[in-house]
Automatic annotation (TrEMBL):
The lineage of its organism: Bacteria, Pseudomonadati, Pseudomonadota, Alphaproteobacteria, Hyphomicrobiales. Its EC number is 4.3.2.7. GO terms for cellular component: cytoplasm. It comes from Sinorhizobium glycinis. GO terms for molecular function: glutathione specific gamma-glutamylcyclotransferase activity. This is glutathione-specific gamma-glutamylcyclotransferase. CDD domains: GGCT_like (cd06661). Pfam families: ChaC.
């Protein structure tokens, strides 16, 4: 659980300093994309390998799926995935970065533990839900974020859940970076859907709203705010650091 409420250093005003209107450059030349048949195969593979057929299908969300799930769910609860942790280890050349100024996105990488949200998916049209989810989570071959069944600890015990974990064989895997190195990237990178700073702020705020405080992300948001102020000359006012509950972000 989180400690006493604190104000974030990173604010919407910081995000505004980084945001730029950028056209979508497309998926890139020479990259192998998943086809409809490929996605159908992934859906079939994951449904066949469900650890507990007949039981509710759970999805473990640790980042943007918390604040933009895009699929239906009938309930949610807090869970801990042991053996996995949030990591800005996924290099982005599109969406929140460009080939000229690559960004970074979080993935679930090996080691440590991660506190997140478990969504229970409805039984009706489960395959259709998974197709939509897989198209959102991975585009290229080999997939960056691999669908995988993991164990998640909850207040009612350990349960199987679908998660998207980093594929270390992906050419976009950056490995373990220092918080300082990640902050340098997030304070600058922006793509056609928004900036890395916005992605980080959205994630931290929605985790905090659920009583989840990731110490690394909390430290990271402060570092990103410092770098934006240094690079742009922006000087935050007292109001900018007031109440994080009043802040609204794009989803």
């Amino acid at each position: 659980m989180s400690g006493k409420p604190r104000s974030l250093s990173l604010t919407l005003a910081h995000v505004a300093q980084v945001h730029r209107a950028i056209a979508d450059g497309g998926p890139g030349i020479g990259l192998d994309l998943h086809s409809d048949a490929d996605y159908d195969d992934w859906v079939a593979r994951m449904t066949r390998s469900r650890p507990a057929p007949g039981s509710p299908t759970l999805l473990f969300a640790y980042g943007s799926l918390i604040w933009k799930p895009e699929i239906e769910h009938v309930s949610e609860e807090i869970g801990v995935a042991r053996g996995w942790h949030r990591s800005f280890c996924f290099r982005m050349l599109r969406f929140r970065g460009t080939p000229e100024e690559p960004g970074l996105m979080m993935a679930l990488d090996r080691g440590g533990q991660c506190r997140g949200v478990l969504y229970e998916l409805p039984n009706d049209n489960l395959e259709g839900q998974l197709r939509k989810l897989f198209r959102r989570e991975f585009t290229y071959k080999p997939p960056n974020s691999m669908p995988r069944w993991i164990r998640v600890e909850t207040a009612r015990g350990s349960v199987p859940a679908l998660a998207f974990v980093m594929n270390r064989a992906s050419p976009f895997y950056e490995g373990s970076l220092s918080l300082e190195a990640v902050a340098d990237v997030l304070a600058r990178a922006c793509g056609h859907v928004g900036s890395g700073a916005e992605y980080l702020l959205n994630t931290v705020m929605h985790l905090e709203a659920r009583g989840i405080r990731d110490r690394n992300l909390w430290r990271l948001q402060a570092l990103v705010a410092e770098r934006i102020e240094r690079d742009t000359g922006y000087a935050p006012s007292i109001e900018a650091h007031s109440n994080i509950g009043r802040m609204k972000l794009r989803s």
